[in-house]
Amino acid sequence: MTPPRTMPRFALTIVLFASGCFFDANYEGARCTTSCPDGLKCHLGACVTSIPIDMMPDMAIDAPPAALTCADPGLFATNGGVAMGTTNGTTSKMASSCGGFVHNGPDRVYRISMNGANQLRVTIDGGRKAYVLASCIESPATPICLGNARATMGNPILVQPAAGFAYVVVDDELATAMSTYTLTLAIQ
Length: 188
Description:
Elements: H1 7-19, E1 41-43, E2 46-48, E3 74-75, E4 80-86, E5 96-98, E6 101-103, E7 108-114, E8 120-125, E9 129-133, E10 157-159, E11 164-171, E12 180-187
Parallel strand pairs: 3-7
Antiparallel strand pairs: 1-2, 4-12, 5-6, 7-11, 8-10, 8-12, 9-11
């Protein structure tokens, strides 16, 4: 009796491996519109194993900065905060009357959501003035500021806007008055 031959099975295994006859179900990088196979996520049109941390849905998506106008105001959180900016290179789009002063200088507009029960403290540093409007109205209208008051450097104002959006405008009565500023909004 002759011993069994094992060489052909070994040779067959090498031939199958060398010819590439195996399946790898790695779909990473495959194109997608809404879904991917299990374990992958559709992100920017491709299946990926994980979405970069700065692109997670609950994170802010990079967007161009606000134009700081009525149509595209800077946004404050409902608990207030601080914004730094400049009126250099801007024009006068707003003309409001606060305490007898009409503001026709270069302006910047911010929006905050109010609940109607809290007061809004507005502080401005940098030489500009800041006032609050119930609605964003561009020139030629000249609305009266809430409380008929404006905040100036070292002199904050406290107003109580109605529920909804309140618009805080950084402005000046002088058309040539341009500079950097720090605007602070606090809910009380």
